[in-house]
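I hope you will forgive my troubling you with a question about protein structure. You will find the record immediately after this paragraph.
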Amino acid sequence: MASVLQIDGLTKSFGDLVLFRDISFGVAEGERIGLIAKNGSGKTTLLNIITGKESYDNGSVVFRRDLRIAYLEQDPVYPEGLTVLEACFQSGNEVTDLIAEYERVINSKDQSYLDAILQKMDMLQAWDYEHRAKQILAQLKITNFDQKIAQLSGGQLKRVALANVLITEPDLIILDEPTNHLDLDMVEWLEGYLQRSRLSLLMVTHDRYFLDRVCNQIIEIDQQQIFEYKGNYSYYLEKRDERVSAQNAEIDRANNLLRKELEWMRRQPQARGTKAKSRIDAFYDLEKKAKQVRDAGDVQLQMKGSYIGNKIFEAQHIYKAFGDVRILEDFNYVFARYEKLGIVGNNGTGKSTFIKMLMGEVAPDKGRFDIGETVKFGYYSQDGLKFDEQMKVIDVIQSIAEVIDLGNGNRLTASQFLQHFLFPPEKQHNFVYKLSGGEKRRLYLCTVLITNPNFLVLDEPTNDLDIVTLNILEEYLQQFKGCVIVVSHDRYFMDKVVDHLLAFQGNAKIKDFPGNYTDYREWKEIQDTLEKEKQPTVKPKEGKVQIPVKEEKKKLTFKEKREFEELDALIPKLEEEKSQIETELSSGTLSADELLAKSNRISDLIEEIDEKTMRWMELSELM
């Protein structure tokens, strides 16, 4: 396969902090690569270097000639005065630049370049750009195309930026946390889109199911070096374990040999002969290898957890709405002791509102939450990340607790606790403002857990956390001797942590489901199939459901038959008109006014053809 991107000998540091040193790798046509590393290891910095947004110390970044690239930043920014649709024409990609050049030429007196621009417009399918933009925005649940960018939430803005990346169908897409702020339906749609495409992909994401299903290669940044794995995420896990075991064994051997060599070094006189010099050089190489950081593997942290009684909380006849948007309606629920509950649903269905009502931050319209006296909440919220940036990491934790009781007489100091969550001693004495976004999230998580709660409420805890931290958190929650409520779009995380779901379906409909997310998804697919067939629904967890044989299709009415015949004749005429206009646009004989009129007409034709074709297909299924 031909290479689209080649990186050789790349080094990047910030002062004394070296992120990566002399790394090399390439991206070939059709490769879909997932980039994995601990927070603070330089994932986003590497993407910014590749896209030219950041400098580097040494090395080279070489792209294939005429390569079309699109980059989704972690925190995209657009001018606030633009509308959603205008933002799609301001993204600075090859197609939008061409459209802007086309509009400039037809509105100027000098039209000598018009023929070349028209040919390129045809080649890049620029005439369809607005239609494609609207289609992809709609898939990402952005339907108000005239809404101002300034009025969008952070999640909506990220989705507009993602649409901008996908619209142009580039040769290489670079994505930084694309699944953040996407609900589960959107994540699964994006999975399918990327699986079907032939483009090359370089991506940073913590969504492990997404990595497993989309990527065919994993690159890991570890200890300032690059390790490549030719397979998906599951293959990476297997091969990484083998690499870490081999590396740890090599460090053990180096340490044993180092002790012997150290004795030899101490016995040697100051004036050593030439023959011994090679052994002395080998000693220092051995010392360097022995001092490599051993990978500790899975870190397990079991905390005592304060006592929690039988009564946790009861939701009694809860009502909540925002105008016409209903969230809860006569909702009742009794939370069980040691229950681990997951909350799923599309954005805007009220998941975070439910959590905020439980925590007393938002009042229900009617009803009440009756909370047990022994309940001690630990609340991780989406917008709870507030630190004094001038404090040191260790001081943030020590201001909450100096020592943590693990039970059975075991205790952890604040520093030891931080090390469990991947803050080594040297990082603990950094100021908060020096941390990456993911490291700040990890520190915020530590401030919640160190209070030793018996009821954890976690609202989107997986956003911006690296995979290593997620594994530690999952292990912690599995061993946690208390209650847990998790709101998350991370399917892998939900499968490992929860055993019970509340599925918010919108319009105050909530499904109480016994099982994890995969169980729920399988059941929901069966229900959706049955709904389409208009058969009675079945209860979950009652064995396999046999999907009934389809009933005989409904026949077309006389009116529908006439409509089908009319569409059958009309669509070819519309296609012919579209083809004729495309020929005229490429002829170079039209005036500026005629060009503008023809361009507007072809846009209307494309929309009309799609609409008529969709209706023709609906009717043809009933034939």
